[in-house]
Protein 1
Amino acid sequence: MTALPTISASAIHVSPFLYIDRTLANGLRAIVIPDRRVPSAAINVAYRVGGKDDPPGRSGFAHLFEHLMFKGTSRTAPETIDRLTEDIGGFNNAFTTEDITNYYEVIPSNHLERLLWAEADRLASLTVNDTNFATEREVVIGEYDQRILAEPYGLLDELVNREAYRVHPYRRGVIGSPAELNAAALEDVVAFHATYYRPDNAVVVVAGDCDVEETFGWIERYFGRIPTPPSPIPRVHVVEPPQTEERIFTHRAANAPLPALEEAYHIPEAAHPDAPALEVLEAVLGAGRSSRLYTSLVYERQLVTSAWAAADLREQPGLFGLRITCARGIALADARAALHEEVERVRSEPPSEVELERVRTQIASALVRARQTNNGVAMALARATTERGDPAVVNTDLEHYLAVSAADVQRVARTYLTLENRTTIEYLPA
Amino acid sequence: MNDGATAMPAPGPPRDAAIPQAVERTLDNGLRVVAFEQRNLPLIAAQLLVDCGGAAEREEEAGLSAMVAALLTQGTTRRSATEIAAAIDALGARLDAGSGYDASVVSVSATTPAFGQAFALLNEIVRAPAFVSREVERVRTKSLSDLSLTYANPNALARLVAYRVAYAGAPYGHPLAGTAATLASLERDRVAWFHERFYRPDDATLVIGGDLTLDEAFALAERELGGWHAPGSARCTVPDAAFPAARPRVVIVDKPESGRTALSVGRVTIPRRSPDYAAAVVANAVLSGYSGRINQEIRVKRGLSYSASTSLPARRLPALFSASTLIDHGRAVEATEVTLATLRSLVDAPARDDDLVSRKATVTGGFYRGIETIDGIASALAEHVLFDVPLDELSRFPARIAAVDAAVVRSFAARWLVEDLFVVLVGDASRFAGELAQTHDVRIIPGDGLDLGSPTLEAGALTAPRLIDRDAVG
């Protein structure tokens, strides 16, 4: 046995995000974080609308809408954002989660003003016609085909959400169903834009090569003139009732060559005080090849080829997932029994100080890596603001992780990893 | 409102971007060391490139170099697999090993205070792996499990079939991850043999850089790897098999159970060292990316798929160009014809110099974003090393791309991207094979009869590929 090399997490210098945070008169939140090292800048625009906000009978709509935001405005042709980014050496993309829709661009910094104009333009004056609406709907159904149908185990996330939630709209997932997407009409698009795409529902972050005051001046000039409707923004107030008994759902698929399963446990929202301890629990169980699940199930007992733990913290109460894929020739029951032993162990005794120090070092190292790109910095600030209500949490996260004790980890494991709180999806070969 | 805020503003004057400069030395044992400095964050990265990968494997040993690389992190003469994992995680570091066709790569990255110890672990796994039987068997089982996932994914399977169709029994033809048959037959001693012979300082390069001075980087390299000795045996060589001639044909793998049909169209083109490489990169950029012609035709205009792209990787030997997408079984014929027509458009409706401005900007912008992180800088330098491209070409890359004009792109496309293309389809053949057979030379392979271990894709099939000299291709 060779001595374990080690460093203290406190030896790793995690520099604070030095950002400026302002709110315009129309309610738009703007955050600027300058870094003039390279002549490039990232813009991140996040709207507080996601899969959970889909209209009734229109699951997948927020995500379909994300695609339509590239289809032109009263002043610009479809794909203008691509012309303004790709064509000058930048790039853009967008994604939708249960809670937010996020648009981002990385561009040579001399194009920053132009892209801020373009983001404001598509917030203010999106236009969609029947032709590009129909084409883009086909693309989204193609995305469903690619990610859900063609990908082995592609339906697993959808099944976890559908079974773990009974009343909360998180049960519908994000990508939705082709049938409900086909039922959507152009009027739905217009109504959705008017309801959620408004300055007081958006956060704009600029990170990279910029002058702070000049950038805020541009944001004021292009976004500041967009009016805020007087109506309140609809919010989801549905509360999922506590689960009282284990749920087990079995799915069989021709393209699932090996038995797999996910066990999901309800956990609180991302801003809850237990969130840091749940993330440390995730790391104890699943971060790296020395994590408990990997060591026990992959190395020592050789029951699974992959083992995964994730605290899926959302704006509203989320899920703690444990996922395994059996090794060839291994029965799911054996792998599941071993997984349950690990769940029981983390409930019955606190993690060791060595484990905790390992997790602290992993987390501090990950935070340093996340500072490498302007895009990563902008996204971290935008998500903290929309999902947890405050960009400042990016600068206090580390101290919260470091403050998590062994007893805290055991406490959240005992609180949330319970039988009656568990939903199991068995994903088996047909 | 008419205050000027509604009109699109013009861009400002551009600022020049800096490209990191690398410095090179060779240690007494023959190890090349390439170092760079990048001090904005407390992170350091290193990649050790071993000049031997999957292309050097014999057909019946497909997957050998991948298995060697996978086992490096799974135990040394001093530490078990779990002890290595514990050490790396305790440092918050990343340590990975893998093999490609042209090389095997071991990489490490860590925060500055952890890097010295993490780099010592890289040295330990490269020089003293144990290849204990238990881990060999575990990695074998994992590789077999992974294969079953790959075969269940039409995109991944189409890619493997495309390589076989293009290269048959030549290097790059066999799957890097091996097949069920080759994985079952790889012996522990053969794994150790490959490592002992081919992981050697006189056939390797260390790229190291980040938050340290160049002197510190060279000193670390010397401290850890200076005592590494080359064996007296022969170096790694790639079998000198001839490449099959490109010819138009359609190969269908019938997988009725796959959710969608995967399409891949392509042919063998040029190696990285070719003087046409910059032209190839620009021609590929005309086709690929969101605004590239393939995605415009397949996704944006027709909604046939969520994504469609092309690739033309950098390789030591002539590389496979391919266009790929995933479609509904019932639209496979349309997608095939649209893809072929779009490739032909490079000659029939060639990109003009004006069009190329934006596509070249895409290439150059991607290049600059790639070197935004220290891992990205290390990978870019490693690519130069691997393909014997002078390191100062890194800073010349934007100028090389800028120099490519429309005539060059058109002639490259005419030579390499339009004629003699194969088409591979993996999906429900009953939905499209008959229609395609009316206009193409179609071969259908039943899904359960597919053998990626055979140059002809079918066990027992004896059809020899037509051969031509490699020089005629390169």
Protein 2
Amino acid sequence: MDAMLHITTLHYLVLGAALFLLGVIGVLTRRNVVIVLMSIELILNAVNLNLVAFSRYWQGMPGHFGGPGALHGQVFAIFVITDAAAEAAVGLGILIAFFRNKETVNVDEVNLLKW
Amino acid sequence: MFLDHIWLIPLLPAVGAALMFFFGRRLQKSTVSAVCVGSVVLAFLMACGAVLQYTNWAAENNNKPYEKILYTWLGTDTGHLNYQKSDGSAASFQADAGFLLDPLSSIWLLFVTGVGMLIHIYSTGYMAHEGGYYRFFGYLNLFMFSMLTLILANNYVLMFVGWEGVGLCSYLLIGFYFHRKSASDAANKAFIVNRIGDAGFILGMFFVAWLCGSLRFIDVTGFARDHAATLMGNPIVTAATLLLFVGACGKSAQLPLYVWLPDAMEGPTPVSALIHAATMVTAGVYMVARSNALFVLAPTSMLVVAIVGALTAIFAASIGLVQNDIKRVLAYSTVSQLGYMFLALGVGAFSAGVFHVFTHAFFKALLFLGAGSVIHAMSGEQDMRNMGALSEKIPVTFRTMLVATLAIAGIPILAGFFSKDEILWQAWRFSPYLWAIGFATALMTAFYMFRLMYLTFWSPSRVTSHEIEHHIHESPKSMTVPLVVLAFFSITAGWLGWPASLGGSNHFEKFLEPVFANAAEKEVPPASESGPGLTEYLLMGLSVAAAGVGWLMASRAYGNAGKGYTEPIAAAAPPVYDTLLNKYYVDEGYDYVFTGRRKLGEVRLGVMGLGEASSWFDSHVIDGAVNAAGWITRSTATFSSWWDKWIIDGIGVNGPAILARMLSYPARLLEWGLVQWYALVMVVGLVYFVCLPLGYSRQFWIAVAGLLLLTGAYFVAKYLRRRFAT
């Protein structure tokens, strides 16, 4: 079938960008702190997607940065996943502390620095 | 034998004084007389023996002075007495209790003991009816002891002991009638004025010790004569001699320290005769003569001595012209004659000055004792205005006093002529001006002495009351015999110094030659060395003429002075008369300047006033300045604290804080407390920096901007709803 789409690196990048955008909007817009944290995870996963896509791209390219050993992106993605996990733990810790003080998970209520 | 026991001479009167001190009250008057008069008679006899022996001894021993040291008084070997002389060499201080007999002290010894003996005898008659007889003789003996210590001392320190002792006895004897305020005041005055001179004496002694390394007369004289060439005109020598002269001024009543002597007439007349005519007041002359080796090295000091002596002579003589108290006239006469003596010393005629001391002792003592006899006859009257025509009634007194007056006026052959004439001759050779002052003084002397004679003896009687007039009688033998003896010496004593110009051999001067033999003899050499000239005879004639003219003027003015006579000076120039009568207001002047008793309104005058002014200055101006400094410090501190509080803290420290706060007002408006707004701002920045180098197309940017703007609007709506919700 000719109408079959070749999935190229570009598609991955666009997907990654879209997910990133959704994540950013979620962080900026949602009221619930848990949803904000989930949006941050979404951002990080979008980044991971980006990294892996580029890693695959360079594996197919010859030259100094290319070749079958060009796994840099994938390795960095492992780091990012680890970092996301830690960050989620810390974020939830902050959320718990925040809830203990204010009895709410509404991010609008975080306004003690208001003048 | 007498020389070895020379220390007995002062000791005998000292024993008499001690006996009076311990036992005097219980003794009979006759015992007192015997003890005290006897001690002085013995002292006189011993003195004669000692002097005779000395002349023999000196002939064998090259005319050296005879020195006998009893023991070392000050300066035993304690090791603390070493000091540096003015030229840097080492010296050690020592003062002995030692006695020195040389021609100078021999002369003094003889006339002090001789005249003292006669006055002691006289006092037995004069004080016979007075209270405190033993006290009087005790003091007189103490005085003789002090005076003899002064004369016989071999160093300045022991001489100063005697010096102070005679000052003390002067005080005791002037204030003998201490119940009278005038007498005790006069005693105080004498002692205090003397003390001023003593301060000068002590300072002079310090200079001498610093210069010569010793205070022994033999050492000082030797030092001065050995170093005469280098020391001539040395300022230390000048200072020393001037200060010593200040001491002499105090003791011998020269200007300006003479004021005590007239007031000293408050004491009994024998005291005036002994102390204030014959002996104590000559101590200053003795001291200067003793220091002649130093004085010839300081021509400036000699000039000062001569000028002060001359001025004193004429000053005192002028006051004596108009005094009405018989003793005052004689007191001023004493001051005047002492001026002559210092004039002689100052022009370098040391032996002439000493000669005048010698003759003056006799006729002045005679004058005072005679005045005492007159007062005794007049039952205590001393004012000459109330006397007169006494020559017939008290003949012995009259004749002896006449002899003394002729002597003092300088009538030839009598004692005063030779000594006074010698002085005037030497003064002429030094400076005619000094001679002129001396000559004028001689004229005045003759005038006032003959005035005294006329008013007392020759003029018609002005006696005020009949009881006194009937009571006038000659004095007892105890009083008249000394008068006769003194009259004899007033005539003959001058013959010892019969000058070569009139054919004599001046024994007196020759006797004194070893004492005054100074190598640097720049001063006038003794007259016997140069031949007599016409000038000398001319001056001699002038002196005699002056005496005669004075006598003549006195006889014209007072010869017939009946009751209510007028003084010629008062008739001619009343202001001059008043000034002279009031003694040139010197006492009042001293009162204003020194005693601090006078006030001008509230301000004290004189040197005490300066003290008060200084005190006021110190407490107001100086302390005021101190207080002002303190006030300035406090004010500065206050200002400094204000500055720190308001300016530094206010503007410096708080200022930025206030500024920050003010600036924060607009900045605060951006803080809404919305976390997601901050995240939006972050995202905006991020997008800008990431996408900027990439140069995306315009549509892309419009889409991104739109997206962000929507989100922003969403937040703004949220905020506004929150802010202005009910």
